[in-house]
Amino acid sequence: MGLIGRPLSREMLEKTYPGLLEYTGSGKVKDCYEFLEKLLLFCFSNRISCFDVVLPDIIPGKGEALAKISRFWFEHPYI
Question: Which of 19, 20, 47, 74 is 20 to 30 A from residue 38's alpha carbon, by CA?
Fold first, then answer.
């Protein structure tokens, strides 16, 4: 399972992987890190965005669902 499905804050990631992650930025619903200077790590959040506005309420489990969908497509790029 690795990191997928584990709720990790930015602080937890930096504490768990000291010196291995470089924060590169945030979008409306995900955060991005460079890992080991060659991989990108996307952290999907439970934040919701609609018409380019981040809404105040979250959807529990949304980040986990987005991560699993992304993992599927990264593992099956030619379907």
Answer: 47
What is the full per-residue pLDDT of the chain (79 aa) written as tens digits?
455 556 667 777 778 878 888 888 887 777 888 888 788 887 777 666 666 666 677 777 877 888 888 888 888 877 6
Two tokens, residue 57: 């309420």
- Residue type (1 letter), 17: Y
b or e along 35-72 (b: 16 or more beta carbons within 10 Å of the residue's beta carbon)?
eeeeeebebbbbbeeeeeeeeeeeeeeebeebbeeeee
Helix (H, G, I), strand (E, B) or coil at 69: helix
CB 47 within 8 A of CB 58: yes
28 CB neighbour count, 10 Å cutoff:
13
Q: Is 31 helix (H, G, I), strand (E, B) or coil?
A: strand
